[in-house]
Amino acid sequence: MKPYLIAPSILSANFAKLGEEVDSVLAAGADIVHFDVMDNHYVPNLTVGPLVCEALRKHGVTADIDVHLMVQPVDDLIKQFADAGASYISFHPEASQHLDRSLQLIIDSGCKPGLVFNPATPLHYLDDTLHKLHHILLMSVNPGFGGQSFIPQSLTKLQKIRTLIDNSGFDIRLEIDGGVKVDNIRAIAEAGADMFVAGSAIFNQPNYSQVIDEMRAELAK
Ligand code: DX5
Ligand code: ZN
């Protein structure tokens, strides 16, 4: 099992002072910045693009930036995010016209590729892609908004993906995104996740380091 990574989602940060928010959450002990990209087409919400990723790099953010593309089409944005300083790039397989091509574009642009599964997206998209993946992101809410409740069935799906990864022999991170809180993070880790996105649980509290410390304490149990 890989070391646990905590990835605050900037979706719940104060966008009027995003650079400071990212600095604060990294100083509070976060490992990586989760960057949600929504296009008001694949999901019914609209967020930020490569310019904002680039602005964070120019601001001085050196931590990995985990770009989660909730967009359709996918391919045009891959190179743009790679040039803007993305470290990981993931997308939803059903939003891509040519899955292998999109993954290869991410690899060729020097980023780490991931596939994202919604609560009801079938796992067969992993049949011929596992060998190219750096991470798999399981959505434990339907994509589009922060602050939703964790869908309990996600634990079963997480276990299934963990088994697939372990049986494959590939070294793939398993990321969970949606409704992750201090009080459920232990169960989520036990089901197989090793990377935890948390938006509202962290940014809706005044003391980011307290929440992250509490999450790490749960993970260490
Ligand atoms: C939802 C996004 C998530 C979201 C998580 O579509 O992908 O990253 O910000 O927010 P919380 O942790 O509040 O559920
Ligand atoms: Zn996300």
Automatic annotation (TrEMBL):
<dbReference type="InterPro" id="IPR000056">
    <property type="entry name" value="Ribul_P_3_epim-like"/>
</dbReference>
<dbReference type="Pfam" id="PF00834">
    <property type="entry name" value="Ribul_P_3_epim"/>
</dbReference>
<feature type="binding site">
    <location>
        <begin position="144"/>
        <end position="147"/>
    </location>
    <ligand>
        <name>substrate</name>
    </ligand>
</feature>
<comment type="function">
    <text>Catalyzes the reversible epimerization of D-ribulose 5-phosphate to D-xylulose 5-phosphate.</text>
</comment>
<keyword id="KW-0119">Carbohydrate metabolism</keyword>
<feature type="binding site">
    <location>
        <position position="68"/>
    </location>
    <ligand>
        <name>a divalent metal cation</name>
    </ligand>
</feature>
<dbReference type="InterPro" id="IPR011060">
    <property type="entry name" value="RibuloseP-bd_barrel"/>
</dbReference>
<dbReference type="InterPro" id="IPR026019">
    <property type="entry name" value="Ribul_P_3_epim"/>
</dbReference>
<keyword id="KW-0479">Metal-binding</keyword>
<feature type="active site" description="Proton acceptor">
    <location>
        <position position="36"/>
    </location>
</feature>
<feature type="active site" description="Proton donor">
    <location>
        <position position="177"/>
    </location>
</feature>
<protein>
    <recommendedName>
        <fullName>Ribulose-phosphate 3-epimerase</fullName>
        <ecNumber>5.1.3.1</ecNumber>
    </recommendedName>
</protein>
<feature type="binding site">
    <location>
        <position position="34"/>
    </location>
    <ligand>
        <name>a divalent metal cation</name>
    </ligand>
</feature>
<feature type="binding site">
    <location>
        <begin position="199"/>
        <end position="200"/>
    </location>
    <ligand>
        <name>substrate</name>
    </ligand>
</feature>
<feature type="binding site">
    <location>
        <position position="68"/>
    </location>
    <ligand>
        <name>substrate</name>
    </ligand>
</feature>
<feature type="binding site">
    <location>
        <begin position="177"/>
        <end position="179"/>
    </location>
    <ligand>
        <name>substrate</name>
    </ligand>
</feature>
<feature type="binding site">
    <location>
        <position position="177"/>
    </location>
    <ligand>
        <name>a divalent metal cation</name>
    </ligand>
</feature>
<comment type="pathway">
    <text>Carbohydrate degradation.</text>
</comment>
<feature type="binding site">
    <location>
        <position position="36"/>
    </location>
    <ligand>
        <name>a divalent metal cation</name>
    </ligand>
</feature>
<dbReference type="GO" id="GO:0004750">
    <property type="term" value="F:D-ribulose-phosphate 3-epimerase activity"/>
</dbReference>
<comment type="similarity">
    <text>Belongs to the ribulose-phosphate 3-epimerase family.</text>
</comment>
<keyword id="KW-0413">Isomerase</keyword>
<dbReference type="InterPro" id="IPR013785">
    <property type="entry name" value="Aldolase_TIM"/>
</dbReference>
<feature type="binding site">
    <location>
        <position position="9"/>
    </location>
    <ligand>
        <name>substrate</name>
    </ligand>
</feature>
